[in-house]
Amino acid sequence: MALELEYRAPLWAYSRGALGTAPQPWNGKGCLITLLAIPACTLVLLLILLVFALLSYG
């Protein structure tokens, strides 16, 4: 009897993959979201500061 396995590669390179019967979870999702959210929030804050600086200068 054959057993079908599913492998999911991790979303973050240093996280473990998942091997087992389907469906398998995406490992490393929290790390990836955190690593993408930090630069995005920084960019938004810089844009807000730029807008306030331009409005107060003019």
Attribute tags:
two-stranded antiparallel ribbon; 2 strands; 1 helix
Descriptive report:
The chain has 58 residues and is mainly alpha-helical. Strands 1-2 form a two-stranded antiparallel sheet. The protein is built from 1 helix and 2 strands, in the order E-E-H. The N and C termini lie far apart (76 Å).
Write the layout of secondary structure elements.
Layout: E1 6-8, E2 18-20, H1 29-57
Antiparallel strand pairs: 1-2
Tell me how many strands there are: 2
| Alpha carbon gap, first and last residue | 76 Å
Tell me the strand percentage band: 5-15%
Strand order of the largest sheet: 1-2
Element pattern in H and E: EEH
Provide the structure class: mainly alpha
Helix content: 40-55%
Mean pLDDT: 94
Shape designation: rod-shaped
Low-pLDDT residue intervals, each spanning 5 or more residues = none
Main sheet specs = 2 strands, antiparallel
Number of helices: 1
**Cα-based radius of gyration, to the nearest Å:** 21 Å
Brief account:
The chain is mainly alpha-helical. The protein has one helix and two strands, in the order E-E-H.
